[in-house]
User: Fold this.
Amino acid sequence: MIIHYGYEDNSGKFYVSINGFKCDNCGICLEKCPEKILGETVIMIELDDKKVAAVKEEFRKELKYTCAKCSREKEPCRTSCPKKAIAVSYEPKGT
Assistant:
């Protein structure tokens, strides 16, 4: 299960996606995120509960601003994940 956190507004689309199949809840992304927007959640995969990384509720509508402080090419959460479970996408309008 891939969980997409983010939104679309007049400026474009911004999403942080976490692949629940790949995430093993190691916590490295939580430590590396300078804005501390990541936490944990429990999802159901194949009838089992599994803890995975998640974007905290209070940051979900502000990702464009909080994540903008990180380089679009080298997001620490994404690049530090040993399982490659995190994807970050930003698509400004008109591109």
In short: The chain has a mean pLDDT of 91. The first strand starts at residue 2 and ends at 9. The longest helix spans residues 28-32. The domain at 2-92 is CATH 3.30.70.20 (Alpha-Beta Plaits).
